[in-house]
Specification:
Layout (H helix, E strand, L loop, with lengths): L1 H16 L14 H6 L2 H6 L2 E3 L5 E3 L15 H12 L12 H4 L1 H11 L10 H10 L3 E7 L12 E7 L15 E7 L6 H9 L3 E9 H11 L4 E6 L3 H14 L4 E3 L6 H10 L17 H7 L7 E7 L2 H9 L4 H13 L9 H18 L11 H14 L26 E9 L2 E14 L12 E13 L4 E14 L11 E13 L2 E17 L7 E12 L8 E15 L3 E12 L6 E12 L4 E9 L4 E9 L3
Antiparallel strand pairs: 1-2, 3-4, 3-7, 4-5, 5-6, 6-8, 7-9, 10-11, 10-21, 11-12, 12-13, 13-14, 14-15, 15-16, 16-17, 17-18, 18-19, 19-20, 20-21
Helix pairs in contact: 6-10, 7-10, 11-12, 13-15, 14-15, 15-16
Length: 631
């Protein structure tokens, strides 16, 4: 009765003297607010995290997100929010009222404080948004790896909000649903500057709402990336609460960092804000990349309803293409090459197969030229193909695209890797070998969860230690070590390449065992003969090294051929070998040969053993290391 009277008094005083003198009701809840402000759910709605030094603060960096003006005080924000919910609404600024700006906070406070006397407000912007989404279920999407640019090198994750559940009756119109994306506000196209700013937090990261078909167009069509979809078992009420929380984040921004506060991390923290019992981020290491996001979902298997695969436009075309006869395949390529139907077969079934393949080919090869608003020779020719295809009746164009189960990202090993072992050298004492790699995968790591023939490694550290000599030395640091081996026997006929930048020890005529700043690159062709020999490559390689320890010239360049193979044997034994001849530019010695061989056997999902051998003119090295892939 006391609380009721106090609230009536508040209303009367506020009506007479205006809202600046409003007596807010937070005092009526007493100590309840203090304990509630430290609850896990409230802290997650504010995106609070605890630092390595025990300091608690929100990861949201825009002041507009905090009514208290303090990102480090969860209780002050709760009290400020509660006060703001009772303020009169400005008729000229309807959508700026706290109930409109923070609908998830409002719903949470109403439930936990059993509030029933909030003033009624109108929120036209939020209401329009909320009714347009019509959330019923939530799906996390993983877009597969793309070596075409630094921003998509390790894949990408975003969320789709479904307007129906997967087991609801009726047609499924996934493409008409809405997607929520978190990404950096990119202000440069320079890949080097992008990488530097992305690593050190030079971008603002924001949430954005986009139609799902835009994301499919971007990833599946433009970039030929497969999508993996993970549907949660959230209730309809929880799905709607998530949409309310994403609205709160719409005007906020975060300091975006490529390996920490990125799309993967903030998608997980937003999902954790739905329910306090979800602990996805607890299973992550100190840094996060998209494949980690997908793997940690399976620490809560009870929350996952279904996993689906959405093939890229390129995969759809290749599935059709490899089912064509040789004359049909030739006809398809001729048609698209010359944008002409002159080579179209006469027989209806053959004609249908060729037209379907040609339409799919146009969709991935000329995706950027086929936007609805563009009228050009490509869009006109696609319309010709569609008209011809519509004339063929009684022909089933359905194809079955096999799901590449071995590429499912949730099956992948941990993104980071630790190693310990021993290294033996001729004419020198043996050393203990220690190492750490931040991300992600090399050619003979456990292959599940990754496309064949790619290596995506960054921040790899190798050290040697010797107790007798009291030494601890850096033997190699690679900022990145990227490899892409595609077979020239396939449809793509793409070149294979390697690129590496960092520091490593060299032993040649310039200096023995000198630490040099170095970069190397290779380009050439690769032939995939079978699943046992996925790579047989012939590359032209170059290497630039710099060290003040070098005799004579401090900067050196070598060029030459590089020949090698990847061989995968039964029992999970994988190996990679190569021979390289280095021709030195402007040096006393014309060339030197170098050979390296690595063999790996998995002991279990987290532990593998790797044997290494390398040989040059001056030295031979043998090593055995245990590799550990955590979580």
């Amino acid at each position: 009765m006391y609380k009721f009277r106090l609230r009536i008094l508040n209303f009367i005083i506020g009506a007479i003297f205006g809202w600046p003198f409003f007596i807010f009701p937070t005092s009526t809840f007493g100590e309840e607010l203090s304990s509630l402000a430290q609850s896990k759910h409230w802290l997650r709605l504010l995106h609070f995290q605890t630092s390595l030094f025990g300091k608690q603060e929100s990861q949201v960096d825009s002041p507009i997100f905090f009514l208290s003006g303090n990102k480090q005080d969860a209780e002050a924000e709760l009290r400020s929010t509660l006060k703001a919910l009772y303020l009169p609404q400005d008729p000229q600024k309807l959508d700026e009222h706290a109930q409109c700006r923070f609908p998830a906070r409002t719903a949470w406070l109403i439930k936990n404080l059993r509030i029933s006397d909030l003033p009624l407000v109108r929120c036209p912007a939020f209401t329009g948004y909320f009714e347009r989404i019509k959330a019923k279920s939530i799906v996390l999407i993983f877009s597969s790896y793309n070596t075409g640019g630094p921003s998509s090198l390790f894949g990408h994750t975003f969320v789709r909000i479904n307007q129906r559940k997967s087991d609801d009756d009726g047609p499924n119109f996934d493409l008409t649903n809405m997607g929520f994306n978190f990404a950096a506000n990119q202000d440069t196209d320079n890949p080097i500057l992008y990488t530097i700013k992305g690593i050190f937090g030079g971008f603002k990261g924001v949430f954005s709402l986009v139609p799902f078909y835009y994301k499919v167009r971007e990833y599946s069509d433009f970039e030929s990336r497969d999508l993996w979809e993970y549907e949660f078992k959230f209730t309809e009420e929880e799905s709607k609460f998530f949409v309310k929380h994403l609205w709160e984040l719409g005007d906020a921004w975060f300091d975006y960092t490529y390996f920490f506060e990125n799309c993967s991390w903030h998608m997980l923290t937003a999902l954790e804000a739905i329910r306090p019992d979800l602990n996805f981020t607890e299973h992550l290491q100190f840094a996060t990349i998209p494949s980690d996001t997908v793997r940690v979902l399976f620490h809560h298997p009870e929350m996952l309803k279904e996993v689906k695969f959405r093939p890229s436009a390129q995969r759809r075309f290749l599935t059709r293409y490899y089912e064509l006869s040789k004359p049909e395949a030739t006809s398809t390529l001729e048609m698209v090459k010359h944008l002409s139907t002159d080579s179209l077969p006469d027989q209806n079934s053959s004609r249908g197969r060729v037209l379907d393949a040609a339409i799919d080919y146009m969709d991935f090869e000329y995706a950027a030229n086929l936007a609805p608003e563009i009228s050009n020779e490509f869009t006109k020719f696609k319309h010709v193909l569609l008209r011809e295809r519509s004339k063929i009746g009684n022909y089933n164009s359905t194809i079955i695209i096999p799901v590449p189960e071995n590429e499912a990202p949730h099956l992948a090993h941990s993104s980071n890797r630790w190693q310990v072992g021993n290294i033996w050298r001729e004419h020198r004492p043996s050393d203990v070998s220690l190492g750490y790699r931040f991300a992600l995968h090399d050619l003979i790591d456990p292959p599940l969860g990754f496309p064949e023939g790619i290596g995506l490694a960054m921040f790899n550290f190798d050290f040697t230690a010797n107790i007798k000599t009291h030494s601890f030395r850096l033997t190699e640091f690679s900022f990145f070590d990227l490899k892409s081996f595609k077979s020239v026997l396939g449809f793509e006929q793409a070149l294979s390449w390697e690129a590496k930048l960092g520091m490593w020890r060299t032993s040649d005529q310039n200096c023995f065992d000198c630490l040099a700043t170095a970069g190397e690159s290779s380009v050439g062709v690769n032939v995939s003969l079978s699943s046992l020999m996925p790579a047989l490559f012939f590359l032209a390689a170059s290497e630039v090294t710099y060290s003040p320890e070098y005799i004579g010239r401090e900067l050196n360049l070598n060029l030459g051929p590089k020949i090698g193979a990847s061989i995968f044997l039964p029992l999970g034994i994988r190996s990679h070998h190569f021979w390289q001849r280095k021709f030195f530019v402007e040096q006393n010695v014309d060339f030197e040969d170098f050979f390296k061989s690595e063999v790996q056997k998995d002991l279990n999902k987290k532990l593998s053993i790797r044997f290494k051998y390398s040989a040059s003119l001056l030295e031979k090295n043998y090593s055995v290391v245990l590799l550990f892939y955590p979580n």
